[in-house]
Amino acid sequence: MDTKVLSIFKNDENKARFTAAYDQALTEWPVPYESCFVTTSFGMTHIIKSGDVSKPPLLLIHGMTATSLMWSPNIAEWSAYYYVNCIEVPGDFGKSMLLKQMSSNEAAAEWLQELAAELQLNDFHLLGHSMGGFLALNFAMAYPKRLRSLGLLAPASSFAPLSRMFYFHMIPAVMFPTKYMIDRAFTWCMSPHHNLNLLPMSYRALITASYKNCKPKLGLLPTVYSDEELSQLKVPTLFIVGEDEVIYREAIPDVLAKASRIPDITTATVPRAGHFLSIEQKEEINRLVLDFLAKHPTSPGHT
């Protein structure tokens, strides 16, 4: 295997600026944590762990370019009941190190399978946002018996194609990372009821540093699953979307209708929330997630 790191950084100065912003934002993580790396054939996956190791395991996968710091508004409530592992996708913005790209859905599922094996996790809860939601669903489709439950927060594609406006706003922010382009992209993602001032200043600084100093190398675009494929998934699933979501090409009711093809699914639409629903309406998201997880307890000896 080629062991050369496929760095998201152009040079050491870019890496240093990103790392400084990341570490500053992490100082505001509201609960005790452990930062570690887990080795897979795809690279070193960075994980922020919070909570009691004896509690049921919950793995979180961030949205594309959002890093695990996006979970700061949720981690205190969730880690009170679960052993939470916030994993960062190799090739995306964050501290993970990529050795080979996840160039297919099968490869992405294998990365998570390897990671869960290294963490010695079985019968665990898995929840993801946006691209992380797609990766979580993709894993559930391939390895359903590994999961106790699946949580999807506005998963990218999965049930409906991404809107053309998504590419219109997000690609320029990556290609031409000026403050204007970055703010334009993230404002578009939010409900009209909110603005960027809702985001903690340290996290806004991290977003800016990420786009200015990193280039994503994930190598995978989210896909849409067919009704037949979705109907075969037997994992208890929670799907939450904001009423002001903008990333889908189809209307929210149509997206929910497609999601309903999963036999055991709970759906919710959150008022006054856009794509960053876990931040925009954190209290409601925290409640919905905890209520759902409580209905699907892990078996004894879950790790």
TrEMBL record:
Q: Which domain of life is it from?
A: Bacteria
Report the coiled-coil segments: none
Q: Which InterPro entries match?
A: AB_hydrolase_1 (IPR000073), AB_hydrolase_fold (IPR029058), AB_hydrolase_sf (IPR050266)
Looking up Pfam families in the UniProt record yields: Abhydrolase_6 (PF12697)
Chain segments annotated as transmembrane: none
Q: Which residue range or ranges hold the AB hydrolase-1 domain?
A: 58-286
Protein's recorded name: Carboxylesterase nap
